[in-house]
Design goal:
This protein is α/β, with parallel strands linked by helices. The chain has 13 helices and 15 strands.
């Protein structure tokens, strides 16, 4: 089969790799129908995730069909169409028993495309399939469902739930990439008074408006002052960091009000300064987290009911074998306007869907 293989920092290719096979009784083999590319994949290619070994097939999000399953798999059968979660869960360790699947100590957690071969291939082996894949209704398109493998659970759990968004809050989302946009959509479910989006790219700020942001600000045009102006100088009740660079995290700490909550979602590859000299007296709560995907069943029901704007986040689609081109488009989002790039699915358009 073919897969997208990491060869070292700055090096990856779509090439022949061995077919996966059931190696444990809890495994399932999935024929990949749709995948997407995550910002974390770009971090890997840059060399920011050193535990990813050269020779690893990348990717941790997919929709596909079960083609084989081990003898202990009970919840899915060959022929079932499923969502492959970005998080694998053993279901037995202390963390899994607390639904903290991202912290699994039984051989799960974030392993696909990280510690074992991932989903950006024609087939993928999924360990602990009973808890790590989700059957899909026929009415939900593959290209919409694949966005529930990672970005929507991440935005919802690590951003909105960790930030404890409540009715009447002012919510600032720093970073209007795919996860930031999903956080805007998810925050709206909790009836905040206003949502403010901050980003560098005009196209992403326009997308934020369409997905429900009440105000937007270019990061170079004093977004902190805009937040202050809209909150009588107090600051935002909840600030969600969805970039993963020191400057954005430090901006978030300046935008949160006393007693407020800062939910860090971004994947940080460099140290960020925590200005405790300013924050120690402000009763600010700062949370971090790797997604658990415990919310995936709920989000699947909501997507099936049309309550999540998945389609609005997809700007480019390609056949699976155009992986290298898709990575190029996604990595140049400032030029291409890319939000989510989907490969496979029911449509294989090779041009951008208009962002504005």
């Amino acid at each position: 089969m073919k897969g997208f293989v990491f060869r070292g920092p700055g090096q990856a290719s779509w090439q022949d790799v061995p077919d996966p096979a059931v190696s444990e009784s809890t495994d399932a083999i999935v024929k990949v129908g749709a995948v997407t590319i995550c910002g974390t994949d770009l971090h890997i290619l840059k060399g920011d995730v050193p535990e990813v070994r050269p020779g690893t097939v990348l990717g941790h999000e997919a929709v596909g069909e079960i083609v084989d399953a081990g003898s202990d798999v009970r919840t899915v059968l060959p022929g079932d169409r499923v969502l492959v979660s970005c998080i694998t869960s053993c279901g037995r360790c202390r963390y899994c028993r607390e639904s903290a699947y991202g912290q699994c100590r039984g051989g799960g957690g974030w392993i696909l495309g990280h510690l074992i071969d991932g989903t950006q291939a024609e087939y993928v082996r999924v360990p602990y399939a009973d808890l790590s894949v989700h059957p899909l209704p026929a009415s939900l398109r593959s290209e919409d469902a694949v966005l529930l493998a990672d970005i929507f659970p991440t935005a919802y759990e690590v951003g909105v739930l960790n930030g404890n968004v409540r009715p009447g809050d002012t919510v600032a989302v720093v970073g209007a990439g795919p996860v930031g946009l999903a956080a805007i959509a998810a925050a709206r479910l909790f009836a905040p008074e206003r949502i403010i989006a901050v980003d560098l790219a005009p196209a992403r700020l326009e997308a934020a408006h369409r997905l429900g942001a009440d105000a937007v600000a270019d990061v170079h045009e004093a977004p902190g002052q805009l937040v202050a102006d809209l909150t009588d100088g107090l600051g935002a009740d909840v600030v969600i960091e969805a970039v993963g660079v020191p400057e954005s995290f430090e901006l978030c700490t300046r935008m949160v009000r006393p007693g407020g909550r800062l939910a860090n979602v971004g994947v940080h590859g460099k140290p960020a300064t925590l200005h405790l000299e300013d924050l120690w007296s402000k009763n600010v709560t700062i949370t971090t987290g790797l997604v658990d995907t415990s919310s995936t069943p709920t989000l699947l029901r909501m997507a099936t009911a049309g309550r999540l704007p998945t389609e609005q986040l997809i700007t480019h689609a390609f056949p699976l074998d155009r992986m290298e081109e898709a990575y190029d488009v996604f990595s140049k989002a400032a030029e291409t306007g890319a939000l989510k790039v989907v490969l496979g699915g029911q449509q294989h358009a090779q041009v951008a869907v208009p962002v504005a």
